[in-house]
Amino acid sequence: MNTIGNINNPQNNTNLTELNKKNKSNGTVDEKVKSQDKSETKAADYTSNETPAKASYKPDMDKVRAMKEETDQRLIDLFRTTVKDGALKQLGGLRGYLQRLINGDSTSDDLALELGIEITPDAIDKAKADVAEDGYWGAKATSDRFLEFAKALSGGDPAKADMLLDAVKAGYKEAEAIWGGELPSLSKETLDLTIKKFEAWRDGTEA
Predict the structure, then answer these.
(1) Is 70 helix (H, G, I), strand (E, B) or coil?
(2) How far apart (Å, rounded) are the C-alpha atoms in residues 128 and 99?
(3) Which of 9, 114, 131, 164 could form a disulfide with 150 if both were Cys (CB 3.0 to 4.6 A apart)?
(4) How far apart are CA 64 and CA 167, in angstroms?
(5) Sign of the torsion formed by the C-alpha atoms of 133, 135, 138 and 142
(6) Residue 177 to residue 149: CA distance in whole angstroms
(7) Per-residue confidence of the chain (207 residues) as pLDDT tens digits?
(8) Which ranges in the chain belong to alpha helices (H)?
(9) What is the pTM assigned to this prediction?
(10) Which string of b and e fits 120-157 if b means at least 16 CB within 10 Å?
(11) 159 near 166, Cβ under 8 Å?
């Protein structure tokens, strides 16, 4: 009876209605809290998965230029020395003496006495063949070797032709100083051919 009375009591009905409203309101708040928690979790997950910014690296152009200049200078020094040695080998030693003989600057007796050796007709013929136009030490073959060596050193880059041509000229000047005077016509012819071949390489007009 008490239970039925409680249910039929208007005041009790009011209390029940208010309680239901509070429960629903609490349920809505709980759902909002849960939804907010999920959003925050997703945001945290998204933030943790972001790719970190990459470090920015810039080339040290001053160092690059300095290293390039050093490399170029070493290349020039090597090539200049090679040209100088090549010019001296073309003219020096026994061949140089024999060139003087071929040019009529000395007699075989003079050279034999100076060298302390016997100069045979075969040696003279060999020297003539070596310095002939188509010989190993001729202007054409020697200038070809200078050009091929320059291409090998530069990796075939024609932009370096002028730089290496300056090294050729410097090498010949050094050879002239060591020779003790103006170089013979064979050297001049070799230098002229070398210059022409380097310029053709630079300009892309090689035959």
Answers:
(1) helix
(2) 8
(3) 164
(4) 23
(5) positive
(6) 23
(7) 444 444 444 554 455 455 455 554 544 545 554 555 555 555 555 555 556 666 666 767 777 777 777 777 777 787 788 888 877 777 655 455 556 666 666 555 665 555 555 667 777 777 778 778 888 888 899 999 999 999 998 899 999 999 999 999 999 988 888 777 888 888 899 999 999 999 999 999 997
(8) 2-8, 10-49, 61-91, 93-102, 108-115, 121-131, 139-154, 161-179, 185-203
(9) 0.55
(10) eeebeeebeebbeeebebbbebbbebbbebbbebbeee
(11) no
All structural domains of the chain with their residue ranges: 2-49, 62-203
Q: How far is CA 144 from the centre of its chain?
A: 25
Q: Tokens 């090998």 identify what position?
A: 152
Tell me the C-alpha distance between 5 and 12, whole Å. 9
The length of the chain in residues reads 207
**Gap between the Cα atoms of 16 and 23, Å rounded:** 10
| CB of 108 closer than 8 Å to CB of 156 | no
